[in-house]
Specification:
five-stranded antiparallel beta sheet
Amino acid sequence: MVLGAMLFWLLYLILAGSPAFSSSGIDDEIIVREPVQLIDHCSAWITAGPSWSESISFPEIEKVLAEGKILGLKPLEADLKDPIKRTNPALLVTFPGGVRGLWKSNFHGSMYAETGAYQVNYYSLKSKRVPPTVERNLSNELLEFLPELRKGFPKKEGSLQYYVDSPFDLTQLDHWTTIWPLVKPTEKSDWYLFVSVFGQTDNHRGNLIVDRSLSLGWIDNTRLRQRSKIRFGEIPYQRLFEKRLPYVIEGQEPPFSFDSAIEVRPHSLEELHLALDPWVISQYVDFYWKQLQKQTNRTFAYVLWDQGVWIQSRGWNGIATKIPKIFSKATLDSYRSLNFPELRERLSPKLFRDVYLHEILERRDEMVAGASKHTLVP
């Protein structure tokens, strides 16, 4: 029963962060909304100063997060105007000098995804988009500052990420439609490449920070672990389910075939069961239907491969359907430099198996080749 519960929560994490259920992706076709005073209101927060990433020393912040004396803890929701119910509650951590961090318990390996995203972004890609992130155990601090909440965190180890301040909230439509068109095209395409190559399927606008200089920060990377197959310009296929009945293959299984996909347009739970019951456990089909009901277009396609069911949500109108038109040559060069040993050094084997790293490099080849056909700037 414990194993079943763990599998259910893992499925929840996968589906909740999948493109089919992300509220929004990156849209280069956003139309700036009126009234003009709304634009003036947001514009008053924009400055020409250095970006958040230019204002800090990443190695120094890493050290503060990993070893610095903690002055206080409080639930993140206490600082939010519109608190949301989280699968994995977060804590706001205060350090001397005004440095703050966001701590999340290691929920089903999320700590390794968060720290891995930072490691590959900063050290492998030489980029400063993911805020410094480290592993840290808060057992003593939880007892000191939040004894009443300590039992709510079964795991006292977790990821601690530098907290980037921003006056903007991209989950609010007025902020999104006003601010997003002002962000540099290469900042958008850098994000598009990262989530596509590393399988970061939880890529809605709520996981983006825009500071006063209109520079992006990429946060909440717990879905970095997702196995996926992608063709440039298309929505990825995600391995959402283990196949219900493993199949036996004589010899080596053929490569993943995009052209073998079967399209499904379920109008009811019964139709979804009819399509997936041969391959997917019944209770997972029920849960999947609840998620599909949130979509205006429930069309999806699936491919059976590697003992799993790989699903592409064709009704999703998110990041993969809005292809950037301008890419940074320097960014593409940094992706070309990636190799297996480098990824193995940065991504913990406790979460990332070798097959996942090989698939990162496979997606890298596909995305770099596709991006190279578009407009390139230094």
